[in-house]
Protein 1
Amino acid sequence: MAFLLLHNYMDFIKNAFSIVKNLTLLEKRLICIKKLYVGARLLNFNSEVNQIMVIPEGYYLLSKKNKLPEFFNDQVVTLELGNITIDGIRRSNYIYKEHSHDQVQSQGYPIDNRISDAELGIKLVKQFDGEMNRFLNALWFVKDNSVCCDGSQYINSVSKVTLYSSGGEFFSNGSGGLSDVEFSEEELEEAEDWFDLITEHAVMRTIGDVNYRDIMTIGKDGKEKVNLSSFSRSLLYLNSARKSGFIPGKISLYTSILETLFAVKKDNTRKVSERLSIFIGDSDDETELIYKNMKKLYDIRSSYVHGSDLRNMLERQLIDYSLILDTYVRKAMKKTLSDYTELNYGKGTNKNFKKVDQWFEELVTSYSNR
């Protein structure tokens, strides 16, 4: 009996070796890449959510109270990333995405001998960084914050190939500073909705894949022009504004967002002040207050752009105005993205600058003629 069992076992081993020997390189690779992980720490972020949150779809958000995935306990992974990096991840909120080989293939990345494990990792990290940019901006749509990601990690759970990106998205809050912000489960779900809207209307392709030639074109006058829709351009300005900790520069970039959304090229102070106040104001009093604040904000912007002295303003005053403008920009972007997508003009839309400019002119006229 024992001999029969041993004989059967040897036959099983022999057949197994035969199968592996006859596998094509592609088949071996599909077996190797069972699970791929790309993730990063979330900094300046707090949440009381204890369970694993999936936000956006396919992403797992682990609070500090959750245990990290088992692959972080692997000695090879620890050696590659370093104990300090692993320890920092354990003490932080962590967001990661899990890929199977089927998912990778469906995204257009061939898993065969033409692409190495490292090359695949670079592609997935690039995709992750672009989607994280959208997620971080979606958190800003919920409320002001300085949540950011530091360098992302790519890990193949089978081959143990690891990559570490030293990049990341570092944002400041409306006052130009950094501070932890608490997000509830409801707010994270709201952020997921904004992520979907940003993806649908404000991103031509993954931001991590966009290069200079993709977003610039030469106009009839021979000058370079931005080759993006107005919503996509506003998102790029938002990235720049949130990365700036210098308040006058932040204010200047915020006004560029409004000028883009409201199709303004001339008489910027009056047009943006009018259009914004009427567009987001909920009452006559609020509309008047927004108009006055925007006039003051444009004075600050003008002084900064033209090199005038801003020392007569206290730092606290500049911060207060920056926070006010941060709120205005958020309300304007949320309203256009959720309720007025027809105001998206430029590449990939059926609207041009003149049509949107005319729409806002009529909005101001109808408000004045009430």
Protein 2
Amino acid sequence: MSKVHFLETVQRIAGAIGDKRADGELATFLNATSAADGADFARLNALCAEGERDVWLLAREAAGVKFGRVVKPAAEAGRFSVDVDGMKDVKGPPSHTHSEIGGVMPIAGAPRFDGRPEASLRPRQRSLPDGDGRRRRCALSHA
């Protein structure tokens, strides 16, 4: 049942984002509606953990990074695709160049993304993992 609830949560978040641009105004909006200490983010984090445990969420692995495309564009998340990855102690360049709305979910240690330790949904340009620790990332990427 976690996949159904995951899709419902992502659909609600993507619907609230709508056609907003990935910029500072969107960051403010997301901090108000889907903050790290809020219900949507906590639910998304729990559903990601459940999906990882049940292996439907992070079904692939390459170079120590588990990943999966959970939603293709024009499906449940509208104009977004939804990717989730799990990594530990990864540093280096991004794997894509398009903007995304990413949720970083620390699991252990002090993982950082774009120089920030925060666990929240926020727009990013060319996201860059740059810290030690284990974390999951749920990304809504612009199609």
Protein 3
Amino acid sequence: MNEFTEGQRDELLALLKLIQDGHLNVIRSALTLGALSFREFQARYNISKPLHAKLDRQGMGPPTIRAGARRLVLISGLPEWEKAMLALDAAEREHRKALEPEPPAVDPLQPPKRKPGRPKGSKDSYRRVRPQIVARPASQE
């Protein structure tokens, strides 16, 4: 029985997933060339063309080679690219977490502050109190 390295096993699992999803052209390309076209790469990682172009402009795209006029994404460089993307995501999450303001300290002995809104009391306490009209007895003349 053949033993696979972890990278080979991950690549085979990814290929099997693509077979289940019906992306046979991606598998043919990956098995014959060891590289993916941009369209195949975008299908494999479920990213859009604009996002892929943005990653390339920022220098964060996957490793590529030129084959004539075509640029191809190297399959052998994808695990390192994935790790770099995961590390970048974790760093961005930590940065966002550091920027969040700390909640104010709550003194357990102080009553909670009221929220702005209606005055304290019954739900109709904000209405003006009208004076009651008292009927006067008719004068006797």
